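pls read this protein:
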Amino acid sequence: MNHFTTLTEAMENLRARGYSYEFSPHADYLTVAGTDMRVRGDEFMVDEFHRFEGTSDPGDEMTLYAITTKAGQKGLFVSAQGTYANEVSAELMAKFNVGERPTVNTEGSVQPLGN
């Protein structure tokens, strides 16, 4: 898996690989602007994710998720961290807790420091 320097670089790479939808949170489901698509937590899988940290402001931290719906639509979801975090239900956000799922490519995640 690639390691990306910027969020834009990662998004362009994923779009080139077919992740064309841009998902946004709305309470307990994701939507796609300009459509009537609603995707609940049990209707998609996280394929991979990439974290980006602001160089000077921890509030600039973001995570980019590449997801695929059960219907086969592939898209992106960007989750801001900290004060500016997206307002998403706890149930939906639990779907994005991917650290211990063997099916999710976590190579781009922040790794714990060794002892």
Observations:
- The chain has two helices and six strands.
- Helices lie at 7-16, 90-94.
